[in-house]
Amino acid sequence: EQSLQLLELGGSVEEDYIRIARGFEAMRQRCCRLEQDGRRAREQLSRVEAERAALEVKLKHARNQVEVEMKKRHRAEAELEKQERKLQLVFESLMREPWGSEALSREQCSILSALAGRRLGGTLAPGRRSSAVDESCQSLLSHSDISYDRTEDDV
């Protein structure tokens, strides 16, 4: 009786083993696909990290360049104000001297007065910016939009 049961089970056991073997093969193929996907993802990650590192270097250089240019601009504005103060003093000295108005022609006096009124009158205001640079709100790269945050490591 036991032998008969074993023979009956024997046929279904063999089919079960075949199903199990097919399941293992399907799982092995799936694991191979996942391994290939993982390899491609790691390659893509390394490419993106290299690109990110290159962009960080460019950003660092750009920040440094902006900082250098801002320092140059501030020095140039300070020099401009210094020269304008000297010019204003020369103009005032010329206009105060009794011989100054006699030595200068009427045309020269009017030119100096026009320059003094237009150029020198409003130039000594504190915090004045050079008009050579467009600082309107339409500017795409306003210095106020640039972040000088040095926390690159927080990412």
UniProtKB/TrEMBL annotation:
<dbReference type="GO" id="GO:0097149">
    <property type="term" value="C:centralspindlin complex"/>
</dbReference>
<dbReference type="GO" id="GO:0051256">
    <property type="term" value="P:mitotic spindle midzone assembly"/>
</dbReference>
<keyword id="KW-0175">Coiled coil</keyword>
<dbReference type="GO" id="GO:0000281">
    <property type="term" value="P:mitotic cytokinesis"/>
</dbReference>
<dbReference type="GO" id="GO:0005096">
    <property type="term" value="F:GTPase activator activity"/>
</dbReference>
<feature type="coiled-coil region">
    <location>
        <begin position="38"/>
        <end position="97"/>
    </location>
</feature>
<dbReference type="GO" id="GO:0005634">
    <property type="term" value="C:nucleus"/>
</dbReference>
<dbReference type="GO" id="GO:0032154">
    <property type="term" value="C:cleavage furrow"/>
</dbReference>
<dbReference type="GO" id="GO:0007266">
    <property type="term" value="P:Rho protein signal transduction"/>
</dbReference>
<dbReference type="GO" id="GO:0051233">
    <property type="term" value="C:spindle midzone"/>
</dbReference>
<protein>
    <submittedName>
        <fullName>RGAP1 protein</fullName>
    </submittedName>
</protein>
<dbReference type="GO" id="GO:0030496">
    <property type="term" value="C:midbody"/>
</dbReference>
